[in-house]
Amino acid sequence: MSLFRLPSKLVHELHRMSSQFWWDSTEEQRRLNWAPWHKLFRSKDCGGLGFIDLTIFIKALLAKHCWRIIHNPNTLAARGLKHCYFPETSLLKANCGSSSSFLWRRFMCGREIISQGSRWRIGDGTMVGIYSDRWIPRPSTFKVISPIRLGAMATVAELKLSSGA
Fold it and tell me: What is the pLDDT of residue 74?
């Protein structure tokens, strides 16, 4: 289930079945509505019942698979995917071609979630683009907002070299 995105119609049907279990009253048996439906999906810390929204849960599982490939690049699965789909770049910068496999398209869904919530740690700066990557510790976009004025300079490491440090 962690690599398959369920159709929205199926997710809606599963949620409907869950709500019927909790609140469906019949003439023989009357059930009490414990909480509004939208509160069921809140965490228990926030006053909800802690039910899991399946679409969000499956997206999180897909992101977890991508995270493992990024942090364990020497595994057989990571090496196979790199060889087929992103031999010259990283997983975060790979493209989803028109003839990509079902598995790779699912990984692209997980990659979107990771790219929304991650940013670079500079290190030596050779892999981090000045204008294209998220590396600024500012929560608005985490990117440089100023217009491109540095010409051919592309990485943060080149900024360090040009400043004479």
Answer: 92
The confidence score (pLDDT) of residue 75 equals 92
Tokens standing for 12?
A: 């809606």
Cα 4 → chain centroid? 14
Separation of CA 74 from chain center: 22
Which tokens in the block code for residue 10? 């199926």
Give the separation between CA 93 and CA 80, rounded to whole angstroms. Answer: 17
Residue 162's H or E segment, with its range, is: helix 156-162
CB 144 within 8 A of CB 136: yes
Distances from the Cα of 71 to the Cαs of 43, 60, 152, in angstroms? 29, 16, 30
* Element of type H or E holding 17: helix 8-23
Kindly state the DSSP code that residue 155 receives in the 8-state scheme: B
Name the amino acid, one letter, at 98. S
User: Per-block average pLDDT, block size 10, for the chain (165 residues)?
Assistant: 73 81 68 70 81 83 88 90 86 80 82 78 74 70 65 67 57
Q: Any idea which residue has 């079945």 for tokens?
A: 17
Rounded CA-CA distance 165/162 in Å is 8
CA 64-68-72 angle, to 5 degrees, is 175
